[in-house]
């Protein structure tokens, strides 16, 4: 066990100050060698996490030819952004318009925010004169009904033989009034589920996949909406009885969706992934492993090899954040208290009260392998109680390949309808 004073000293010796975006260049160079650069965040409502990730993302696209961005968002909503940045969605006036009209499910502020508008408009401009355009996609599993709607609309448009099965599946879900908790309780406790209808549709689409090959990206859209609907059914079926397994279903779905996106762009493609630290930081370096939980960081390292994955965690010492007191309620700006004494955020702050980052290498990895609490803030947050459950025991240099510390941060700015 290394003493706290020694860790602080080693952070001071190894950290690179971050005073402007050009300071990120060593990090961008290291991440640029990977197939997938996984960019985290310690909350879903911190402005600087979004703006710094955007700067890294732009450079990975410009200087290292990364071909797509995949985020912790719903596939149907993100696909509208994908259409907009590729210039095939004239119904949207600008980035703010597409974000406000596409992201409706709570917590909409995660993607419908002012910080995202700059990146989306940049992508729209960047793509304008390129044949191979950068894409933007959602990896999450929550979009059961939205994905079913998208499937039905597309199958109607192409007059597909799979339309009847899609209508049967969506009819099965109708009695639950698009309320996941109602479906979950019915499926888990009363055996009233739509699993067979969803599986029949998924299998039929797979069998008839050549029918949809005329438009490869439309085919990708159909395929992932079908997978999202199937995995969402499994997720909601499971979430009322087993939190850990529903977590695994969700992260395995995100890894599966990423696999299909990567295949669409080709074996040499590189992608940037935006998700919370709890998804992109290897679960095996936290107490999640003892609970039988996996995540995208672990799954991608296992599937593609560690050298092909570069994960960057984020943290802050204090500031403000936008979050809600209860699920589904109106978000508010909350104070993020100073990090708990002895946490990673605290020791990095003690090494110097300024923005900085650590790049973990074979030479320094052992210096940052102590199991220390690492702050994680969700969309539901109670700052007054955060020391009871918001710190994940972590071996930082095994969880990430690099770590960005932004000492004082401020709340994200949601777009107002």
Oligomer: single chain
Please tally the β strands and state the result.
11
Tell me the span between the first and last alpha carbons: 52 Å
Secondary structural class: alpha/beta
- Give me the CATH fold name of the largest domain: EreA/ChaN-like  fold
Outline the low-pLDDT stretches: none
| CATH architecture type of the largest domain | 3-Layer(aba) Sandwich
- Give the biggest beta sheet: 9 strands, mixed
Q: What is the CATH first-level class name of the largest domain?
A: Alpha Beta
Shape: globular
Provide a descriptive summary of the structure in words:
The chain has 2 domains: 4-66 and 270-409, EreA/ChaN-like  fold, CATH 3.40.1660; 144-247, no CATH class. It has 16 helices and 11 strands. The protein has helices at 4-14, 25-31, 47-64, 75-85, 95-102, 114-127, 144-157, 163-173, 180-190, 195-207, 216-239, 243-265, 277-280, 296-304, 344-350, 396-399, and strands spanning 16-17, 36-39, 68-71, 135-138, 271-274, 309-323, 332-336, 356-359, 371-375, 391-395, 402-409. It starts with a helix and ends in an 8-residue tail after the last strand. 51% of the residues are buried. The chain has 417 residues and is α/β, with parallel strands linked by helices. Helix content is 45%, strand content 14%. The strands form 2 sheets. Strands 1, 2, 3, 4, 5, 6, 7, 8 and 11 form a 9-stranded mixed β-sheet that branches. It has a two-stranded antiparallel sheet with strand order 9-10. Keywords: Methyltransferase, Transferase. GO terms for molecular function: methyltransferase activity. This is Erythromycin esterase family protein. Pfam families: Erythro_esteras. InterPro entries: Emycin_Estase, Hydrolase/PRTase-associated, UCP036794_erythomycin.
